[in-house]
Protein 1
Amino acid sequence: MTVQVETPNEEVREVLDGLATEFSGVLSRAVVSRTVLDAHQDLNGQTVPDALAEMLHHLARHRLTTLQ
């Protein structure tokens, strides 16, 4: 069963797509998606908006690395 998850915006979608490609064959897209969205929720409002995409990428990548 495929679950479609709507991403909040283009920046989040770009982070998700990049990390899904990077972790392809290691972690499912669903796991990557959930991790990115959880990281986005944790960072949203906690960091400068201009830095959100970069911080999101770093945090989500770190979390995904620990899942390997």
Protein 2
Amino acid sequence: MKPTAGERAFGYLNALLMIGLCIVTLYPFLYVLFASLSEATSFLQNRGLLLGPAGFDLSAYQAVFRNPMIIKGYENTLLYVVLGTAINLVMTAIGAYVVSRPNLYFKDAIMFFIVITMVFSGGLIPSYLLVNQLGMMNTMWALLIPGAINTFNMIIMRTSFQSVPVSLEESARMDGASDWTILFRIVIPLSMPVIAVMILWYAVGHWNSYFSALVYLRNSEKYPLQLVLRDILIANSTDSMMVGSASDDKYAIGETIKYATIIVSTLPIICLYPFLQKYFVKGVMIGAIKG
């Protein structure tokens, strides 16, 4: 059927609106990228929109990667992301599998106490005292163990596990399979879309996390990247990264260094999205259809 003039006009307006939204959404990131690639003095002299680097210069990135704390922060963060995400997936999958079983005793009561943790928590002080009494202060386990299971993620994974046909589990049990075998060889392989979503959510959470490290870590050698960047961006500690710069240029270079640190911390996690994008919508929908 040939579209009417009104329908064509509506389509054009929708396209223009979406293009405008994309520009508004994308420009702040492009501004940070252009600023990080700009020559410091030229960037400070720029007024209005920044549509490209104000004099191409990589000095800000050279200063960032000369800072040994940036490299150490990267190493720590990669360790926390990989190990923390693995712990999260295993613990969440086990918890979701247990509460997804139809023959679980007191299932409703268990789910009630699980869901109530999404609304109420002990707070920072009890959490701090618990971590301290468990001997995890100033260790990476203080960042990984307390948040091993996210309640919302477990509920989504539980809903996905419930969509696996019961007949597969019954057939496996007839062949002598245990619950561990059913979980890791049947349920999880059939739930890979939601597993991919969990990997993305947990990995992004660990990558962006800094507050737990701020509370529980005392040794700067164990700081994740985000906490190192917090010191640079908030505490204005860019002087040590400008070796050889004239005092008049330190403020200007410090501004471009801040933008470079934002790109350095953001780019790796953005590169993870394309590999998981095809699973993302499907995994979320699987976890949301059946309650």
